[in-house]
Amino acid sequence: MAAGTDSSDDKQNPLATTSESSRDGPILPVTNVPTPQKPAIHPAFYVIIWIALSGSVILFNKKILDKEKGLNFPIFLTTWHLVFATIATQVLARTSKLLDGLKTVNMTGRVYLRAVVPIGFFFSLSLICSNKAYLFLSVSFIQMLKATTPVAVLLAGWALGKDRPTTKTFGNVSIIVLGVIIASYGEIKFVLIGFIFQALGVGFEATRLAMVEKLLNSAEYKMDPLVSLYYFAPVCAAMNFVLFLFLEASTISVDDIFRVGPVLLVINALVAFALNVSVVFLIGKTSSLVLTLCGVLKDILLVVISVAWIHDPVKPLQVFGYSIALGGLIYYRLGADKLKELSKEGVLRWNEYGTKHPAYRKAAVFGAGVLVLWFIFWTSFATYANTGTQININQTVDYAAPPPQ
């Protein structure tokens, strides 16, 4: 087209020059090409917040549900969390956009009674049994037992007719079971009733997840964690309150609540609710792969923190068994092909990082080695200390006993 004519191409092309001199002169490279805008907050921030809140809720609940100094009423604590969540979700639905997902959910009274109520029933039982386990078991051992959740979900799916069992799948989950069995065998503070409560908690949670997949699997019922809490918290709070009236109301007192502190209970419920909010942002900013790997990382960090801070005794045999369970869990969720792809990409990036920052890479390797050695030493020392204390007590009793007549 001639230079003097007014073309529509010039109007459509935002980089076209508008002066005659620029048309006749040499074409210069464009230097102000707009760059894609980076997100204001890096996804790693949401990962860190989620891991921190998730670990805080578990450690917080363990501290509150202390047999000697805390509140020995797990049903009351669960009911309080659900009442707080019910009020908070109702307020957020009316004052913010965090619950805009409610507009896409076709919730009717029939669906609520046939799906939400039965799912909420198992959700309530899962929360109660899981909190009850904190009265008897260590945080580290509970986290090891939670590694069996995918196995329980698979079994629940088979029982409900949602999935068909296959030899390959059964073989994959068997690795997880084997690791947990080894970890359980090495547990020092094994309490059968606590183990039963945690196993029931995992089973009820697996049944809940399988029922969600079976009853609410269509697009019109897809919910994010916060919307799900909006629907499930009220019915779960009502169910838990009924159980509280029958099982704990006659024994709990105002002194028990004030021994823990009303302010501490409010903060505890706020942290638990903030965890659900953080999950919504985490799902929106990351992928399912990141969620899987971060979940494993969170469990490992909780075990380490429980050993270092709460002084939970962990034997090397448990570390070995838990490592097998976590390896089986990652393999089950990602698959062999994805693991090969990730390993190749990881090696490539590690080599590139070492080329650019050799000193930092050496420091990272050294720090990781020190951390591993420290953890091995600490677990061995904790095991020896607990075993030694028990032996010393027995020996003292034997020596203190009067000689036989």
UniProtKB/TrEMBL annotation:
Any Gene Ontology CC annotation: endoplasmic reticulum membrane
InterPro entries cross-referenced by the UniProt entry: EmrE-like, Sugar_P_trans_dom, TPT_transporter
Main location: endoplasmic reticulum
Keyword Transit peptide: no
Ranges for region Disordered: 1-29
Entry keywords, A to Z: Membrane, Transmembrane, Transmembrane helix
Protein location: Endoplasmic reticulum membrane
Keyword Membrane: yes
Membrane topology: Multi-pass membrane protein
Record domain Sugar phosphate transporter: where: 44-332
Transmembrane segments annotated in the record for this chain: 40-59, 71-91, 111-128, 135-161, 173-206, 227-247, 259-283, 290-311, 317-334, 363-385
SUPFAM superfamilies per UniProt: Multidrug resistance efflux transporter EmrE
Protein family according to the UniProt entry: Belongs to the TPT transporter family. SLC35D subfamily.
Subunit comment: Homooligomer.
Function: Involved in the import of GDP-mannose from the cytoplasm into the Golgi lumen.
The name this protein goes by in its record: Sugar phosphate transporter domain-containing protein
